[in-house]
Design goal:
By secondary structure, the chain is of the alpha+beta class. It has a 5-stranded mixed β-sheet with strand order 1-2-3-4-5, with helices on both faces. A hairpin with a 5-residue loop joins strand 4 and strand 5. Helix 6 runs parallel beside helix 9. The N terminus is likely disordered.
Amino acid sequence: MRHPARLLSLVALCVAPALPLAAQNSPSARVRNAIQAIESMIETTGDAPLQAFAEKSLAPSYRNSFRGDSLLRHLRALRTGVGDVGGVMVRRDSANFYLEIDGQRHSTVRFALDEPGLITALELLRPGSSPAAPSVAPSPWTGVTWETLPDAVQRAAAAGFHGTIIAKRNGTEVLRTAVGMSDPVAGRRSALNSVYSIGSQPMDFTRTAVLLLAQRGKLSMNDSIGRFFRNVPSDKRGITVAHLLEGRSGLIDFYHEDGTDWDSDLSWIPKDEAVRRMLASTLRFAPGTSRASSHAAYNMLAAVIEKASGVAYPEFLRRELLTPLGMTRTGFYGETLGLSLGEFAVGGGPNVVGLPNVGPNWGPTSWLVMGSGGMVSTVEDMDKYYTALARGTLLTGAWAKQQQGRTAGAGGSSRGYFIFHVSDGAGSSVLVLTNTAGRERNTPALTGALERLVLGARP
């Protein structure tokens, strides 16, 4: 089974009552950081990341309200109760935030924050115990089948969904369509070649690039990061390439600095500063002893790729992946790719940067996200990539098998974009790109329904 890259799943920010998150002492950043911490904690194994989460993300008064090992048992139960993270929405009432999570099951996690952004309450709610969400029409994705998928897409479009979709069943394409608007304000309709931000999906590109270099003998999975970087602190000398790929490095998830970086994705920092921050960071656990999602690990892998290949990370991707596969509309932030701005789908927010809110207006890809984000693509380009992985075009033998099999991955950003891909590894798959994630309440329902469609009923 291919190890899916961990992708940001803050995909639909639905706030009730309506509160302008960006106007409340930067609550969007506080809420986003809390959600990222909760998501990462849920996807870990072992007790070390739970203890690190408690120390970093929970308010001292809340931690101290537990006696003995009861806090650890509480976090274990929450993690087990949720299971995994697929699509996520957050809403709120006057006192709490509610994380609606679609994974192996639907879960609701209630949490509260203090002014600095530390968690003062955290619990997994029993079904039916959370306040009712704002009244909405039934999801068009409910009970979708291969036969009803085209109709579900059209009903979703009528309900406000904008995006592009390619679906295949047992090796035969059953749907390739664009619906809604790529720019609702300008009235510009979506097209199959519309260019979208693809969130954290570049983590998968990074994984493929590392495997290519390993296949060619340019690096080994057992290489320590000390082979590639000078002055590695003693606590990190045991981190290997395999640890970075598999979520076992112990590195933090994100390393932007509040008060220094104006945006956690877009603030410009160079590679040397990124490596410095990562090496200076506090590990969540000793390398190889546990597992936790880390975008930073993939940023470090991008730097490893540059050391092992002798070329810049963007150039390596272009030379080895994008150009050979004909992915002419895939690139990095700040690039127009020779296209007009009208060919880029405009992000639906809630965070808006630039007019229009599109990749070329966000500046060059920062090393805050190089290797784990900062790229744009189209549904047709991404289909070329996933098809190449399935066919063993890029990798061969055992290396190819590491990027094949049953998988489901999602990624998005608070600027309103979302990408979802699910495959059974045997010819059935669905790929979705949308620019309405920030306003589309049915996004978690979409991911759950399509995963069930392709992979079958969940246990």
